[in-house]
Specification:
single chain, mainly alpha, 10 helices
Length: about 300
């Protein structure tokens, strides 16, 4: 009597070779994304940190401490000097930006892979909605790195606002000292304070960022008479990156204000408590201090990132 057991056909040498090529191509693509994210992130920090410092100080200062962004700039330079003042706390983002941006681009590639498995990609091109979904996913692994580095950065950025008495030293001597003191005060929970707020900001922010960049990239990419796409020029890349940065910050700025105040507050603040406190300071308008510097930062910092 014949057997009904199906025969197992071993893959041919050619098939194995093609699979190996595909795996190597995928690995290389991931490595390129990792390196591109790291280099772009360093450029973004160098260009954007002074704007970010002004934004954070406006978000966290007591009501009436500053009349606007120019007042923050003037008082910061007068009190702390140009380089030391405007780049206070820059060591934390410089140390964290390479893994942060690299993981973001890596997560974006993973997100696109997930999107491809759960939905149909027409003609090999992701829709703007699919790009947005992949962008949202990229923020999930990135938050693990972003939250503690943001916490350290914010504390170093704001400590220069305090007037020191003769002989008094700043509370923190540097990024490592911040981590040491935070861990001693509240363990890892203190170091990672603001993680939920960070994800709440970076999830929709990354979705808006990648979707906007993809939209402008497609609109600005030239086509020949046969409809074939050409290469995107450097000015067009910068324009798309700048537009993506503006879209990101416009979508999530109130969440960023909540995150900054949560990560800079003394004691054990809660997310709900911070929201109520900010609203009580001036209603909806109180969620937008520093919006101008954030927009000014968005264009140059994000133009050099991609």
């Amino acid at each position: 009597m014949g057997s009904n057991t199906p025969k197992v056909v071993a893959p041919s040498a050619e098939e194995v070779k093609e699979e190996a090529k595909a795996a190597a191509k995928s690995t290389l693509s991931g490595l390129r994304s990792f390196i591109a994210g790291g280099v772009g992130g360093v450029c973004a920090v160098v260009v954007g940190h002074p704007f970010d410092l002004i934004k954070v100080r406006m978000q966290t200062a007591e009501k009436g401490a500053y009349t606007g962004a120019i007042d923050v700039l003037r008082k910061t330079v007068a009190r702390e000097g140009l380089g030391r003042g405007l780049y206070a706390g820059v060591t934390a983002p410089l140390a964290g930006v390479t893994p942060m941006f690299a993981v973001s681009f890596w997560g974006y590639d993973l997100g696109k892979g997930i999107v491809q498995r759960v939905s149909k990609v027409e003609n090999g091109q992701y829709s703007i909605g699919q790009v947005s979904a992949a962008g949202f996913f990229s923020a999930i692994p990135m938050t693990v790195i972003t939250a503690p580095f943001e916490r350290v950065k914010v504390l170093l950025q704001i400590q220069g606002q305090k007037e020191l008495k003769p002989g008094e030293k700043p509370r923190y001597s540097g990024a490592t000292d911040v981590v040491r003191q935070l861990y001693r005060e509240g363990g890892l929970r203190s170091v990672f304070r603001g993680s939920v707020a960070t994800l709440a900001r970076d999830g929709p922010g990354s979705a808006a960022y990648f979707a906007t960049y993809e939209y402008f990239k497609r609109r600005l990419t030239p086509k020949d008479e046969q409809g074939r796409q050409g290469s995107l020029s450097l000015p067009a890349v910068c324009a798309a990156g700048g537009a993506a940065g503006v879209a990101m910050w416009s979508a999530v700025f109130p969440l960023d204000t909540i995150k900054s105040r949560l990560q800079s507050a003394e004691g054990r603040p809660t997310l709900g408590g911070v929201v109520r406190e900010v609203y009580g300071r001036g209603g909806i308008k109180a969620f937008f201090p520093g919006f101008g510097p954030a927009m000014a930062r968005a264009v140059p910092a994000n133009a050099v990132t991609l």
